[in-house]
Amino acid sequence: MGRGEQPLRMAQRFFLLYVLLQVWGQFPQAMDLEIEGFRPLSALLIVAAIGALRIVEYRRKAPLPLWMDSLEGVALVGVSVLLGTQDSLQPLLFAMAQFRSVLASLSRLLTIVAVFVMLSVVPTAVGLTDSPVDGGAVIGLIVSPMMAYTVRILMLRGQRELAQQRMLLEEVLSRMPSAIVVTDTDGAVTFANPTATRITGMSVGSDASGLDKLSLKDLNGTPVTLAVATRGGDTHLENTELELVRDDGERRRVVVDVQPLAEQIPGASGVLVEVRDITDQRRYEEHLHHLASHDTLTGLPNRLMYQQLAAAVADSGEPYAVMLIDLNDFKAVNDTLGHHAGDELLQGVAQRLRQHADPTATVARLGGDEFAVLLPGADETTAAAAAARLTAAFNAPFGLSTGPLQSHGSVGYALAAPGESARDALGRADMAMYARKQEWPSSHRAAPTLSPAIN
Prior knowledge:
455 residues, Beta-Lactamase, 52% helix, alpha+beta, seven-stranded antiparallel β-sheet, five-stranded mixed β-sheet, Alpha-Beta Plaits
């Protein structure tokens, strides 16, 4: 049975009980009339049959065929004649009209009300009984069922509007990109929209530990128990960015907002949990950041990223070395083998430099055929050794689509002096690189020292 049908069925059940009580009340009233013979018993059997027909109508949720109303009308006239009065039938007719008001259509209700009014008037009018007509009872027999019918129509209209609103709400919730979860005061899930099931695997009817099964961590890696927040614990989550680890191992970045329902709906209990999946947004932001800070051809940090990293190391006061690498024959490669081969050579050089650089170093492409290496914590010995390794990166030929190519590069390095800016250190490494570029084959040279602290 649908939720919208329950109130109407309750009204039908109530008026059916009202009819049956009136049927039962006919028995002592008939006995009190002191009528001899079979007449009281016959009248009671007819009344009992009419009560049974109301039970049939209740079970089939619809009135019996129209011809049954005519037959019942004749039977009720017979009851009035058998008992010699219709006074005892008035409450029964009133109850039956009320029952039909919550079951039948308007035309059918008007028909039965007309029949019952005639049953209240005709027997007296034609002399079948001596009882006077009760005008108040007749008016009540007309007005009361119509009022009940009006209430029924308004109730059905309200139920339809409520059902439409519920369908609209369910449709909106099903299309929302956010996961919406409602829990009771114990943390058990009472509602979860399709997005919640898709993101978390949660479903309606989960036990109180349903939220505990979600693997959530904050951005520092600290586990977060969502069920504690939904039970009103000390954990409060308001637009908090977390990492969700799903059962299949996939990691999703989500924003969780937990709000008590009482803050939104007075008198409500439980908690409303909203989970927004921002994984794609974060990936896109990271992609944009990567494009802004990395070279698209080699994947190395670009000049901007190098400057930021070098400035951070210089500001920290930590000693560091800067190395600059420039290809000696890059223009010749472009002119003779084409730009595609030149791009392949740059990619190969970037890979070699990463392989030969210190694990703590940052390899960047500054532009064209110029590369830089930032080595934090370096002294003269480690810087010279690092420069030698980078020079050795050019010993083996590079495999290009046009065939193996032996390329050459010049390496110059500079140890940053105390208080020297990253820009000045790069400039001195550039001077060392160009000085070395005059020599052939590939080799390296240290920059001129700026203070006694640099050898």
